[in-house]
Amino acid sequence: MRDSAWAAAFPGFLLPRGVAEILLKDEKSAILGRDNREAMTAIEIKNLVKSFGAVKAVDDVSFRVEAGSVTGFLGPNGAGKTTTLRSLLGLVTPDSGEALVNGRPYTSLSEPLTEVGAVLEATSFHPGRTARNHLRIMCTAAGLPAERVDDALGQVGLADAANKRVGGFSLGMRQRLALASALLGRPKVYILDEPANGLDPAGIEWLRGFLRHLAYDEGAAVLVSSHVLSEVEQTVDNVVIIARGRLVRQGSLSELTSNGGEAVRVRSAKAADLAPALEAAGAQVELVDDGTLRVRGLDAEAIGQVALDRRVVLTEVTQERSDLQKVFLDLTEGR
Amino acid sequence: MIKLVKAELQKLFTTRLWWILLLVMLLLVGVFLAIFIAVAGIENNGASFPGRDTPEWAQMVWASGVQMGWIMVMVLGVVMMTSEYRYQTITGTLLTTPRRAQVVAGKLITGLVVGALFALALLVFQAIVVIPTVLISGGELDLSASHIPQISVGILVSMALYALFGIGLGALVRNQVAGIVIAVVWTYIVEPILSGIPVLQVVGKWLPGGAASALMNIDIDTGLGRPDLLPAWGGALILVAYGLLFAAVASATTVRRDIT
Q: Which residues of chain A have a CB within 8 Å of the CB of B16?
């Protein structure tokens, strides 16, 4: 901005030609500089297209993921999530479009493990190799110090199983090991394909906390795919939904959830008395059953105030916020 | 590249296959050596097998184990490549090293190294068995008459290259079982027939096995007449050409393929 202000203050015709050119060039490089910063978006998918034979697996998908946020990449099985992620990681060559990490194709990163941590599938281990050896080989190939192996195993809670052969691991343990391999290079971008598969509820809860830690404490960009909305609903800031290879919707979680209109569910023995009072306060009220109301246009606090004024005892006040599941099903199945 | 070769060696030595193959190779070679020791000097239908104290016997015995060596290192090469696909570890390998030509080069170099290590093990084992046998039988170990140094070089080079052939074959077929079957049938049945039967040797001498025999300069009348082989330098050239061919196959099949 300062450069363009300079250029405006000293129009070219008042200045010797060379100086004007330098100023214009400065302005240009300032703009380029801004472009470069934009290009440093952690993950950027631009108009990605990929077909396998006659099947269009990914059809013109674009989105980006910024540092310090968790983005859920959602869609039913076979929607093209894995193909998109594999294109991003240089495993699949797209027909057209771009998939960039830190502004560059993955295959041009010189030390990829220090920039990107990826979890693709929990089955990609040699069953006869121990967890530690698996990670040690990756460290050797990537030129990372061997101490990272035990650090990473500790971080995912596998320190005790380090010397066990992966063949004896449960699916949940394999997922943790896959996550450990993503942590080796302490990257700032994480690309995780269905990492919750095979985890028990405690494991899923642990994964949620871990992803939040990576994004909010370490400032990483996290892209996590899932075909089960509820797995990621409590973790993600942004959502990208695809179905049949096409982008269906993207936006922040709150944008998507508010889409159906927020309602509050109110239960009371005197629901019938309460309804007119709430309507008088400006709400639209729907009588769900004898003791239950569905209220729109007032938040929980306002509803409580009305109930207090009317001296009506409330037995339940619930924010009915997520029909995201419904939105998800509508968006993915409706087409 | 050194990092990648080290990683490939770790891959091999952190699974059990290498020592199983090494053990099988030495056991089978041991059986061959025992037979050669037992039949030495026996006359049969007027043709006599060379005695244990002759340089002909030493030459024959010294070259007898290499075929087993070829089978084992080629299988090892096949497995080095196909297990990446079988267990999908190729994903992790390519995430760590996204430049695929480097991954292939690392594997090929590692194949050469491991093939040569197997050859060294074979040579040491043969030396432990053959040298005392010759000396106890009252013979003298005549290195030039028995061609032992040249055969040893041939064993070293050809086994290193057969491991590389295995990697190329593995990259081409990707299916582990198919790759192993092809490697064994080729080295154990097809090549010996084509390079052992005189009329077929016009073909056989151009195959890797025939070229390796030429390099080793094996000059033994097996009862079917002296083998029809290329000169040693020709054998060396043919072997290197096969090495380059399989290396090209390995990279061409790996560099572009979508890993899904």
A: 128
Using CA coordinates, name the residue in chain A closest to B103: A141
Question: In this predicted model, what pLDDT tens digit does every residue of B105-147 receive, in sequence order?
Answer: 999 999 999 999 999 999 999 999 999 998 888 888 888 888 8
Neighbours of A199 (CB within 10 A): 20
Cα–Cα dist B202/B194, whole Å = 8
Q: Which structural domain range is residue B198 located in?
A: 2-37+50-255
For tokens 């990092």, the residue is B3
User: What 3-state DSSP class applies to A97?
Assistant: strand
Pairing of strands A116-119, A189-193: parallel
Measured distance CA(B44)–CA(B205) in Å, rounded: 29
Question: What's the Cα-to-Cα distance from A244 to each of A143, A293, B51, B75, rounded to whole Å?
Answer: 39, 38, 76, 42
8-state DSSP, B44:
E
Please provide the distance, in angstroms rounded to a whole number, between the alpha carbons at the two ends of chain B: 26
**A91, A110, A166, A181: best to mutate for the B interface, most B CBs within 10 A:** A91
CATH of domain A43-257: 3.40.50.300
Contacts for A303 with CB less than 8 Å, ≥ 6 apart: A264, A266, A278, A283, A295, A314, A317
The residue whose two tokens read 């390998």 is B93
Q: Say yes or no: B258 contacts chain A, CB-CB below 8 A.
A: yes
**Cβ–Cβ under 8 Å, residues B251 and B101:** yes
B187 found inside a domain: yes
Establish whether this prediction's ipTM goes over 0.85: yes
